[in-house]
Write a structure and sequence with these properties.
The protein is an alpha+beta fold and 129 residues long. It contains two helices and six strands; from the N terminus they run αββαββββ.
């Protein structure tokens, strides 16, 4: 496994992803995934990257959202990188003002493509504190 070169690229991709989510930039979300990428949220059905624009728009119309990632490990094997991270999220339901904070364990499989690293698979589960 190659240890370091893609580590910074992985951190930068997660930072871009967080910025897109935090700014509700749903148009950018699918572009951060591979064409066959998949989002696998905790307790919900998996979504192909192509559905993120529509689903994201619906989610952000009802919710103010903020996320930050703390990258724990990055392992690289050829054209794939495996990233373990901890995420902290804060949501506010716009209709009610109800706020919630969560922590999750996040796992990304990234794939090197001609245009750089992209998310191939993103899965997470909530951590009960």
């Amino acid at each position: 496994m190659q240890p370091t070169i893609p580590t910074q690229a992985a951190r930068e991709l997660l930072a871009q992803y967080a910025e897109a989510l935090n700014s509700a930039n749903t148009a950018l979300l699918p572009a951060l995934y591979t064409n066959d990428g998949v989002f696998m949220p905790d307790g919900r059905a998996s979504l192909p990257a192509s559905a993120l624009l529509r689903k994201g728009h619906s989610f952000f119309a009802k919710t103010r959202f903020h996320i930050s990632y703390e990258v724990k490990t990055v392992a690289v094997d050829g054209e794939y990188a495996f990233v373990q991270a901890t995420a902290r999220t804060a949501t506010t339901q716009l209709a009610t003002g109800q706020e919630a904070a969560r922590t999750s364990q996040d796992f990304f499989v990234l794939q090197q493509q001609d245009q750089g690293w992209k998310i191939f698979c993103y899965i997470f589960n909530s951590v009960r504190e």
